[in-house]
Fold this protein.
Amino acid sequence: MVLAVILGLAVVLAVVALVYAAHSGLFHKINVTTGPPPIGKFTGAYKFFTGPYSNSGKTFGVLSEICPDKKCFGVWYDDPGTVAPEKLRWITGTTLAEEDEKPDMETFKKLEEKGYKLKEFPRVNRVIKTSFPNVNMLSILLAVFRVYNAIADYGKEKGLEHSCGPYMDVYDSSSAVNYFMSTLDHHDDFLVPEAQSAS
């Protein structure tokens, strides 16, 4: 009797976990295309890091505490398949202005105290892009495990692998989706000085 109850609870928990994962995007169909990016020219506060990309989660946590209503972004410069984890270069940051808006300098002052710097990022003409549901933290983890390979495979299929620049993510807490892309032009304009000196 006890064993039956335990097995029943295990089945229920497994079903609940599967439903939760499905709701978070486990079975979401990833549609990769080329075209203009989902974000244009923007001014961002960024911080440069080296090390495993998996360390980025806590840096996004810092940003969400300081400016929870802002879009966050990450730019990933190196291929983790060919570069040692400790040498991977990346930045995370938050958008302070888009297009011709004036930057939110009040927020930047708070970030500057944490070591963030200011940079204008260009409007890109063309990217390889996709999106993924923005439901919860599991959605982000699922996206990381699924979208990058899909973008890389699409680039190879279309003969664009040698045109791909840095990968970039844009996270918007007010949106139902997060965006993931690889730039096809203006590559060097996404390099921050720290990334150039560390290459």
User: Anything to note?
Assistant: The radius of gyration is 19 Å. The mean pLDDT is 85. The CA atoms of residues 17 and 74 lie 29 Å apart.
